[in-house]
Specification:
Length: 298
């Protein structure tokens, strides 16, 4: 199927009325943009989120979509009359139907963490069916495996989970770290996030991957001590959460921190050395992973 797209340059003062009138006249959509978009005269117009923008471009362009058999010239003339504007000139082009779902999906390929650990969208064949494959689609919560902060944690899990560990994932997002730990052999995993949508996504993703993990909002989290605690949050919350996170790590257990910029690593390592013997930092694209071993409390 194809559509006709009319491009109408018009005085900004009548653009909105004309776009409304085009919709009334039978356009399938009508969007207003800067007539000089993409040129040196392009004029960015910014507004506060949720606030109406009271400024208009000097000259506006309306892109209006019509059915392939519509008499576009007659409909534009009718709309201009209704909007009290002179009949504008326009150009017309044919727009072919696209498979938007396929186009979007093609932008997400499987992600190789290591030879044995892959993150694969559900619509893809696993590149290595023998590997540990997490099925994860881009969604409303952070954590598809493509971001360096997540990748640093996944690489640590891949290298250190030997089987039977208990894991606590603080700031679980999509649940990717808890789910990966379980698929790599951990005995149990619990995740926590302040965002209810992340808690829901994590539960859905665990079910999708056939693993049993529990996810909570912080106030509902169980008072557990785990062999491994991961927290891929940002430096600021990590500065405040040291004591709480340390309380969730068994003596001799491991902490894995991510979401830290390279120039914040020394300061964060200093904070966590109050409870942990810290390892040297590991860097990836300007981000840092910090790890440490919980000292026995005296
Ligand atoms: C960068 S994402 C990490 C998601 C996932 N764990 C990963 O590694 O990709 C950080 C997550 O931490 C959550 N978060 C931020 N501050 C938090 C806090 N104080 N307590 C619990 N969760 C928090 C956010 O809602 C977000 O989902």
């Amino acid at each position: 199927m194809a559509w006709q797209q009319a491009s109408i340059d018009t005085d900004s003062r009548v653009a909105e009325a004309l776009a409304d009138a085009l919709m009334e006249a039978g356009a399938l959509s009508a969007a207003i943009e800067d007539a000089w978009a993409g040129t040196e005269q392009e004029e960015p117009i910014f507004g506060e989120p949720g606030e109406p923008v009271d400024k208009l471009w000097q000259k506006s362009r309306i892109l209006a979509l019509f059915a392939d058999d519509a008499d576009v010239g007659a409909l534009i003339a009718l709309a201009a009359l209704a909007a009290g504007a002179p009949t504008p000139a326009f150009t017309l082009e044919t727009v072919e139907e696209q498979d938007w779902v396929r186009l979007t999906q093609s932008q997400f390929d499987p992600i190789r963490i290591s030879d044995r650990l892959w993150i694969t969208p559900t619509w893809h064949e696993a590149p290595n069916p023998q590997a540990v494959n997490l099925q994860l689609d881009p969604g409303l919560a952070f954590g598809t495996g493509s971001h360096p902060t997540t990748r640093l944690c996944l690489q640590w899990l891949d290298a250190h989970i030997q089987g039977g560990e208990t894991v606590f994932d603080y700031g679980c997002g999509s649940g990717i770290l808890a789910i990966a730990a379980l698929k790599l052999g951990a005995a149990s995993a619990v995740g926590v996030d302040i965002d209810p949508q992340a808690v829901k996504s994590s539960r859905d993703n665990a079910a999708q991957n056939g693993v049993v993990a529990e996810f909570f909002l912080p106030d509902d989290a169980p008072a557990i001590q785990a062999d491994v605690v991961l927290a891929n949050i940002l430096a600021n919350p990590l500065r405040l959460l040291g004591e709480l996170l340390a309380g969730h790590v068994k003596p001799g257990g491991k902490i894995v921190l991510s979401g830290i910029l390279a120039d914040q690593a020394a300061e964060l390592s200093g904070i966590y050395s109050a409870w942990f013997d810290m390892d040297p930092p590991v860097f990836d694209e300007g981000w840092t992973r910090l790890t440490g071993t919980r000292r026995a409390t005296v």
